[in-house]
Design a protein that fits this description.
single chain; alpha/beta; Rossmann fold; 7-stranded mixed sheet; 40% helix; 17% strand; elongated
Amino acid sequence: MNRKKKSKIKKIAVMTSGGDVPGLNACIRSVVRTAIFNQLEIVGIQHGFEGLISGDFIPMNAGTVSNIIQLGGTILKSSRSARFKTREGRLAAYKQIKKENIEAIVLIGGDGSFEGANAFTREHDIPFIGIPKTIDNDISGTEICIGYDTALNTATQALDKIRDTAQSHERIFVVEVMGRDSGYIAYGAGLAGGAEAIMVPETRADEKNLQQVLKQGWNRSKSSLIIVVAEGNESGGALKIAERVKKYMPSNYVGVCILGHIQRGGSPSAADRILASKFGFHAIEGLLMGRRNVMVGFKKNEICFTSLHRIKRHHLDINKHLLKMITTLTS
């Protein structure tokens, strides 16, 4: 693609921050390869913002990112930094950046990481380009985040396996998935796994309705019942929900399965690898075209950019049509 590059940046850095998700390595690979293609020098910042403060930099090249697209986790490691939340910590990071002659940073992170980057850019003239990653899929400015598709598939596969046992022994299972503030995984896995009930943080749990749904299902001679609950549901997690279910269905076995951090790991899905590759490519392209302090996103099948100061956490949109579908398919 022949077009004039507006930026004179020659050296950049890439880092991962916050919780790990599948697809981080695919994104790092894309950032590094696109930078090299555009004749940019690139270094990796290890251990997130803590590494930025301590100057934990490593040179990156094509060999560094060879054969990593299929790997979970992050080769650059990650962390959460209390020091970067302070003005002193950010000043220490700036000094390391200037010492290394880094002119821009590609940050693969979540809303908390972008909040930190936004605070940094208000104090120091170093541009950031953000790339959204979270299995909760709850970052504004994009319809999909790196890691969500793989986590959703992991949760769905777990539900399928739990269903086998539940059906064989005619049992009820309460399955807890990740989602402290967002119900995306619970909603998606619940629908894909044919759950009889889905409980998410965005709606208040109706205990009478849950009781009715489960009893109706059992009365229709169902040989298993599965309730999917997000960890942030206001009625509590799987253990508390299971205790309530036992009270009004005392003759039934009620099992609990908390999926936990298994949802964060594993080889990324094809969809996550492709999304991560697109985000990494467009992050560098945007930077070279002069974009500063923005996050790459994906909306209506197109790449978009949103200012970091506008990025915040958002929730699953529970509208009447979605509620009707969930009620219809789980009843």
